[in-house]
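call fold(seq) -> tokens
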Amino acid sequence: MNEMVSLTSAFSVWIVFAILVIVFLRGSVKFVPQNTAYVIERFGKYYKTMEAGLNFIVPFIDRLAYERTLKEQAFDVPSQSAITRDNISLVVDGVLYIKVLDPYKACYGVDDYIYSVTQLAQTTMRSEVGKMELDKTFEERESLNTAIVSAINEAAQPWGVQVLRYEIKDIDPPRSVLDAMERQMKAEREKRAVILESEGARQSDINVAEGQKQARVLAAEAEKSEQILKAEGEAKAIIAVAEAQAEALEIVGSRAITEEGQKAIQLDLAEKAISAKEAIAKESSVVLLPESGTGAASTVAEAMTIIQTLNKVKG
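ret:
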């Protein structure tokens, strides 16, 4: 009986020991998820930072103090009022993208890094908007976002976090400013329309003037070409007539020195003399009376005498 009690007691001890071992192992093994960091404290003091994977701690001595995600996180920056350099009140909100780079600093360098970075983003945004005029806040959002990110990162270095981006979602000016901006844009559109219309009319006039100028130039060139061609034609005609006359005179001269040519000349002169007297008789009221030395025969004789004289000179 005593042996049975002893065996039962020993078995119970082993069971308790096994349970304690299981509990110890379970408490000492830590599986850290990906992109997560565990900050471990030993006796209330920072001990180490466990990264993703299998890790071990000493139960009842080490404890998990903080759990920090290493992923990029997005947080809304609440709407707030800001005054531009030209004294216009705006309501601005945005989105902040941050990432923990140093879990130790994110745990012990600041109480709540999300709240701290958000407040810093608001104050920095008010400061940057105050440096710009109203129109620039709409036109230069990218430069405004960059300036805010640079200022936050410079101030948040002791906190172990980095601001990756800051995006302004909405900029809401007062209704009166919106109405004034709408009237201004309408005036600008009308101004551009008038300018474009005047530019179109000016270009149209220029095109018409250029067309007329080119037409006059072309007409002048055509007239010039026509006159040149006409002059060339007249010159060629004169040359052709002169060459024909010269050729005819050459032929007449070559024939005139022959006996047949002399007779032909006598006959031609007689015919021309008779024709001339007939024309004078028809057109004039004066009656020509024949005289002894003015007959056709005498005229022909005189002409023949002249021709013979010329031939003797040549001979």
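The chain is about 65% helix and 20% strand.
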